[in-house]
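for the writeup, i need someone to sanity check this before i put it in the appendix. the sequnce is what the collaborator sent (i think, or maybe the updated version? ugh). structure was predicted straight from it, no edits. if anything looks off just tell me and ill rerun, i have time this weekend
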Amino acid sequence: MNVNGLKIRPAGEDAEDKKTGHHHILINMAAFPEGQAIPNDAQHLHYGKGQTEAEVTLPPGEHTITLQFADGAHRSYGPKMSKTIKVTVVK
């Protein structure tokens, strides 16, 4: 995972710094609106330590995966800082 135009920084270090943030993977979801906090559950995977790699296990079938960048308080930077792909998991 990477980002252009902003720096990757662990969550919570400076929640108001709008030039940094961290990644979230949204399973079978579209990008969050700008400013909306991203929940933390099985569909909303947080990488608040600043991770740039992840392994995600999905059941067989078609899935939508959205990579969403958010600020130090997990508030989305909006669709402009996201990318969505469709994948098919085969058994």
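The CA atoms of residues 60 and 90 lie 5 Å apart. The chain has a mean pLDDT of 95.
thx in advance!!
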